[in-house]
Amino acid sequence: MANKLIVAPAPHVHGSESTQKIMRDVLLALTPALVFSVVAFGWSALAVTCI
């Protein structure tokens, strides 16, 4: 029993960015696609996105 299995959490990359900042960046990245979908398909595309 010399070879015991060592269980530890997976290593994760830690950064200084908060979850709030990352999600704000995600929303900013999705904004052009949302604007295009409203222009191409009308306001119903915005309603579908909100649901």
From TrEMBL:
GO terms for cellular component: membrane. Pfam families: NQR2_RnfD_RnfE (PF03116). GO terms for biological process: transmembrane transport. The keyword 4Fe-4S does not apply. The chain crosses the membrane at residues 26-46. Keywords: Flavoprotein, FMN, Membrane, Phosphoprotein, Translocase, Transmembrane, Transmembrane helix, Transport. The keyword NAD does not apply. This is NADH-quinone reductase NQR2/RnfD. The lineage of its organism: unclassified sequences, metagenomes, organismal metagenomes.
